[in-house]
């Protein structure tokens, strides 16, 4: 069995969830080595008879469907053992062992902000989510949300107007839920974004899937912005997960008469950062972006045997820009850096007044 088939077989096996699969990988290594173990050794690792039976006789039709899906353009499988796996997700205590991606997988590595909230927001809440997302996407942050009705949908639509967006799903990536967002899902993929799920293809929208999805939304992001939320909502679960993961939590206050503002007010009382403008978020995340760039620079330095400074990297990027408007893609070609690295650096350079963003995704050097 080839490596991809081995991953898919383990992933579809009942009783092998994310934690169990990671533990099996830590004990035995590659997926094929897990499948080659004697049943007695797998029992010692905690697998029950149902799991063992499915491993001995995997469903060939399901495997064939998933392999066929992966052959289509724009369809990807990213595993936790791959160099393409997002670093922020890898650091979680319960990282998803694999991700199905429909669209651009490079988006997983861009600096991201999660925007979440009520499925039944006020008109003002929807406008706020859309406006914030558009502005922040224009500034270089990818907007991540859950493709749900309400605030999620508004965030995705706003991000598409200003940049790119990523939808983390509580279903298989081939099954759009809710169905009314099918057109939005197509627009996300067509706009250079991505649909992402850890669930097997064809997975239905079961209630238990969405808390699992929420940990990926917050895990991929530098911070989570809650726009409107009731006191008991999935958005507050996402905010709690973000806090546990060491991410920033932002909340927008609302009217004391709006029940959809009470969740945000509770978050603010418990330490979430109150924000009144998108610039508040950009300024708060700037140090985190700088830290990420330093870590990347140090990683490259150790491989190359020297220690370039981040300030020098900024200077070189400004030289690559010249004095004519350029796009991120042009800077990637000129500098040889990755898209996510260039986007992070541009955001910081803009905050420091060295760069201005212009309509159409262009950036101009100021000095």
Radius of gyration: 21 Å
The low-confidence parts are: 296-310
What's the number of structural domains? 3
Termini distance? 57 Å
What brief labels describe this structure?
alpha/beta; three-stranded antiparallel beta sheet; Rossmann fold; 367 residues; nine-stranded mixed beta sheet
Describe this structure in words.
- The longest helix is centred in the C-terminal third of the chain and has 27 residues, at 278-304.
- The chain is of the alpha/beta class and 367 residues long.
- The protein has three domains: 1-64; 105-276, 3-Layer(aba) Sandwich (Rossmann fold); 286-365, Arc Repressor Mutant, subunit A.
- A nine-stranded mixed beta sheet has the order 1-2-6-5-4-3-7-8-9, sandwiched between helices. It has a three-stranded antiparallel beta sheet with strand order 10-12-11.
- Residues 296-310 have low confidence and may be disordered.
- The chain has 17 helices and twelve strands.
- It has helices spanning 3-11, 18-28, 31-35, 39-44, 49-56, 60-70, 87-90, 123-138, 151-162, 182-190, 209-220, 234-244, 262-269, 278-304, 310-321, 328-335, 339-351, and strands at residues 75-79, 98-103, 112-116, 142-145, 165-168, 194-197, 223-226, 248-251, 273-274, 326-327, 355-358, 362-365.
- 42% of the residues are buried.
């Amino acid at each position: 069995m080839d490596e991809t088939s081995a991953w898919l077989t383990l992933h579809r096996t009942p009783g092998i969830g994310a934690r169990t699969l990671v533990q099996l990988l830590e004990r035995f290594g590659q997926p094929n080595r897990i499948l080659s173990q004697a049943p007695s050794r797998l029992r010692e690792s905690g697998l029950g008879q149902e799991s063992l039976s499915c491993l001995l006789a995997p469903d060939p039709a399901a495997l064939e469907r998933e392999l066929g899906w992966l052959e289509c353009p724009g369809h990807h499988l990213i595993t936790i053992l791959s160099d393409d796996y997002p670093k922020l997700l890898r650091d979680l205590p319960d990282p998803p062992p694999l991700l199905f991606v429909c669209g651009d997988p490079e988006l997983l590595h861009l600096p991201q902000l999660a925007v979440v909230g009520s499925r039944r927001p006020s008109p003002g809440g929807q406008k706020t989510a859309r406006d914030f997302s558009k502005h922040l996407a224009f500034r270089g942050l990818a907007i991540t949300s859950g493709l749900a009705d309400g605030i999620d949908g508004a965030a995705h639509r706003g991000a598409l107007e200003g940049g790119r967006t990523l939808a983390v799903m509580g279903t298989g990536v081939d099954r759009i839920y809710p169905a009314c967002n099918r057109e939005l899902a197509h627009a996300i993929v067509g706009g250079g974004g991505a649909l992402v799920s850890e669930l097997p293809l064809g997975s239905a929208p079961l209630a238990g899937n969405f808390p699992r999805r929420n940990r990926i939304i917050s895990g991929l992001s530098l911070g989570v912005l809650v726009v409107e939320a009731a006191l008991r909502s999935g958005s507050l679960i996402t905010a709690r997960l973000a806090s546990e993961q060491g991410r920033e939590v932002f909340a927008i206050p609302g009217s004391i008469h709006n029940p959809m503002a009470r969740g945000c007010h509770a978050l603010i009382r418990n330490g979430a950062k109150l924000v009144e403008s998108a610039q508040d978020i950009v300024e708060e995340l700037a140090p985190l972006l700088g830290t990420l760039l330093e870590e990347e620079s140090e990683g490259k330095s150790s491989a190359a045997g020297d220690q370039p400074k981040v300030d020098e990297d900024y200077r070189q990027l400004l030289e690559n820009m010249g004095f004519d408007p350029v796009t991120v893609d042009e800077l990637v070609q000129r500098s040889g850096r990755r898209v996510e690295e260039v986007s992070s650096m541009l955001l910081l350079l803009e905050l420091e007044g060295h760069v201005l963003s212009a309509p159409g995704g262009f950036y101009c050097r100021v000095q």
